[in-house]
Amino acid sequence: MTRNGFDVKNLVCRDRRGFWIAIGFVALLAGFMLKIPCLANSWDGVQYRSLCYSDVQALYEQRGLDEDRVPYLEEFNEYPVGTGFAMFGAAKATSTPVAYTIVVYLLLFAAGMVAVVGVVSLASASAWRFVAAPSFVLVAFLNWDLLAVACAVAGWWIATRRRWWLAGAVLGLGAAIKFYPALLAPALAFVPWPWRDDAVPTARGETSGAGWRRAGGVVGGFLITWIGLNLPVLIAAPTGWLDTWMFHARRLVDFDTVWFWASRSFDVVPGGADLRDVADTVFRVGMVVGLVGVVWLSNSMMRDGHDVWRTRTTVALACIVVFLLLSKVFSPQYTLWLLPFFALAAVPWQWWVVYEASVVAVVVARFQWFATAPALESNGWSALFGVATVVRTVTLIALIAWIVWQWRRREQIRSDIERGKTREMT
Questions:
Q1: Which candidate, 22, 125, 268, 275, has a CA 20 to 30 Å from the CA of 405?
Q2: pLDDT the model gives residue 422
């Protein structure tokens, strides 16, 4: 529709995108300001009471960055190589803990804006689920995850342009920073099944074999990039590289999981190796069954390929949720993995509200518990922490049910349309 020579619809759309990008900028600025008290004060508990704690600042000296010790070669680092060398690069560019922390925060701010612009450009109508999320403010600068989130969103945006090799490469870069972008690859490579791509009406312009080119491009680009970044470190410092993976294998059940709170309820030692081993076994088996099940089920209900990208988006969201539900670690910043796909999948706002309320309660109660109970004895904050963790878990389980219902609903609509056409023909 035009008025006086102006395309009103496009103008409103551009204004809406600009508005949500501005909101994302403000949210990141608020998250940055939240961390200021920890830069200006000694850590005597203020880092928990003021919610300004950040692994970025905490690990500067613990990982030898103040002495320019090279990750993996000279110093242990628990993060993948992309994060490890981002830490090292920021340390080499600065000389004090405060300067280092600010430089990393600026890098995270830039990565956050990449994610914001990407989400808004793909789903401006539902972008508020990401940019206006209270949890976005609380955890944006808690760890280095925004770097991986930027790669995940950028890779997804590139994939919508059908540049499969480049999309896989960007996801591989993200997985070299944090594992999470790897969870998006199955949705791009295997939805729909490569051998069924020619039967998908929405995949216009693709010729025979396009499905295999898509799957090969995503998987190939991912592996070449991930291996290319990890192999030099593995060759130069095999022990240091393997120590990262062994650290996570030996890691005990974390506070932010149902594993931890269920064990406290049943008088099982939360930090025990036995519980860790059970959690690891459930995770390994559950991830294989869960990811294969999600991809298979989505394909089985997508017979005519209606709205392929919406299905891919919900598959990606389901893969992330499966990982978080089964993992023995659910650090507060992991919610950043979900938020962009809450927006892209247009998760119902009611569920978004419940999830956000539970996450905010988890983050606040977690740090207030640390501040008020140095020995981690039970108190009101720990009770809120446990209840909020359970609510968050139930919400994510319900989200899986909603995703499956979405697939089933679209299949039912397709069946109804086909029956209507059949009646018209007779």
A1: 125
A2: 44
